[in-house]
């Protein structure tokens, strides 16, 4: 009994602490500590791969303050285009603003990059065509002459890989920008709405003008006769000649020109409300070819024709390009 009583008293005795030594654990102590181990699974979607991190680094460098660095980044991206199609969205999102870059070498490298992306994945250029056109429009009306001169180089690439969506969604916008780019005044437009640049900033070099006219000719051809050519290439085997009439249309809103579901009608030019007409041109739905031709004839054919006639007088290669385009414009009816 005396021994048990002594052992119970030991449990309630205050033990002296010694420096550098831990307390003795009681006999009934339970260890609750644990160790966690990480499990690595292959192809985890939440973990970025080395290629993704490297691509993000290069895309961030595309906004570098040095023009030479931006150029080298674009060249590197062009030579090392990823095999994963999902990465092209980030590439286009980060390099598109360089359309209005002040460095000519950067813009030249960007044209090459966009062209190579279109060769590999043309659908990505078409998917991002609307956002790219916004920067092209900004370049066509930019205060810097060199940026304006290179603007149609990017437009040529977009027309090459995404022609359908451009002529349907940006028909009026591109034509108005061309009037501003080439100093062609819209007919009956007031001074506050004249889409023209100052005479001091008009293109002096003829070479950019030749490129502008070539791209404009391609743009007008796609917008006014592209659907006819596409329909003519369709080959129906062993069927009735009118089978194409009963097939599903290849373009959205094939009867949009009839305005069946819209209150607004196609805008017709009148002198008394010309200001409203210029502003409302952007609201016209140019999904179908008939509407595009009507809009061009009513609002753009005369200023384009007058501008081309003045360019023909300059002669040389520029005069030849203008004469060829004038013939195509006059055939649009």
From TrEMBL:
Matches recorded under Gene3D superfamilies: Leucine-rich Repeat Variant
Keywords annotated in UniProt: Nucleus, Ribosome biogenesis, rRNA processing
Location of the protein in the cell: Nucleus
GO cellular component terms, semicolon-separated: nucleus; rixosome complex
Main location (coarse class): nucleus
Limits of the Pre-rRNA-processing protein Ipi1 N-terminal domain: 125-220
Pfam families hit by this protein: Ipi1_N
GO term, biological process aspect, one: rRNA processing
InterPro entries the UniProt entry points to: ARM-like (IPR011989), ARM-type_fold (IPR016024), Ipi1_N (IPR024679)
Keyword Flavoprotein set for record: no
Superkingdom of source: Eukaryota
Region (Disordered): 1-25
Role: Component of the RIX1 complex required for processing of ITS2 sequences from 35S pre-rRNA.
Family: Belongs to the IPI1/TEX10 family.
Self-association and partners: Component of the RIX1 complex, composed of IPI1, RIX1/IPI2 and IPI3 in a 1:2:2 stoichiometry. The complex interacts (via RIX1) with MDN1 (via its hexameric AAA ATPase ring) and the pre-60S ribosome particles.
Protein name in the entry: Pre-rRNA-processing protein
Organism of this sequence: Komagataella pastoris
Phylogenetic classification of the source organism: Eukaryota, Fungi, Dikarya, Ascomycota, Saccharomycotina
């Amino acid at each position: 009994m005396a021994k048990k009583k002594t052992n119970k008293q030991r449990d309630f005795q205050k033990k002296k602490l010694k420096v550098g030594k831990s307390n003795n654990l009681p006999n009934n102590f339970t260890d609750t500590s644990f160790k966690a181990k990480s499990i690595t699974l292959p192809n985890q979607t939440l973990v970025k791969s080395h290629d993704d991190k490297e691509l993000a680094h290069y895309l961030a460098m595309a906004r570098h303050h040095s023009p030479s660095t931006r150029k080298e980044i674009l060249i590197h991206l062009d030579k090392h285009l990823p095999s994963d199609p999902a990465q092209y969205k980030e590439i286009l999102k980060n390099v598109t603003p360089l359309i209005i870059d002040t460095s000519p070498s950067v813009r030249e490298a960007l044209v090459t990059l966009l062209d190579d992306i279109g060769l590999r994945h043309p659908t990505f250029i078409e998917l991002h065509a609307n956002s790219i056109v916004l920067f092209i429009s900004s370049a066509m009306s930019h205060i810097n002459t060199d940026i304006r001169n290179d603007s149609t180089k990017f437009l040529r690439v977009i027309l090459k890989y995404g022609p359908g969506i451009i002529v349907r969604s940006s028909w009026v916008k591109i034509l108005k920008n061309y009037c501003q780019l080439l100093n062609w005044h819209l007919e009956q437009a007031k001074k506050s709405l004249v889409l023209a640049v100052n005479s001091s900033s008009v293109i002096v070099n003829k070479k950019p003008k030749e490129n502008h006219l070539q791209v404009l000719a391609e743009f007008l051809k796609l917008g006014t006769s592209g659907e006819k050519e596409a329909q003519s290439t369709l080959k129906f085997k062993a069927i009735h000649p009118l089978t194409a009439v009963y097939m599903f249309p290849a373009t959205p809103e094939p009867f949009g020109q009839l305005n069946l579901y819209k209150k607004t009608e196609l805008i017709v030019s009148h002198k008394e409300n010309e200001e409203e007409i210029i502003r409302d041109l952007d609201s016209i739905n140019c999904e179908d070819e008939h509407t595009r031709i009507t809009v061009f004839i009513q609002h753009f054919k005369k200023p384009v024709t007058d501008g081309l006639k003045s360019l023909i007088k300059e002669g040389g290669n520029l005069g030849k390009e203008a004469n060829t385009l004038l013939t195509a414009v006059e055939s649009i009816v």
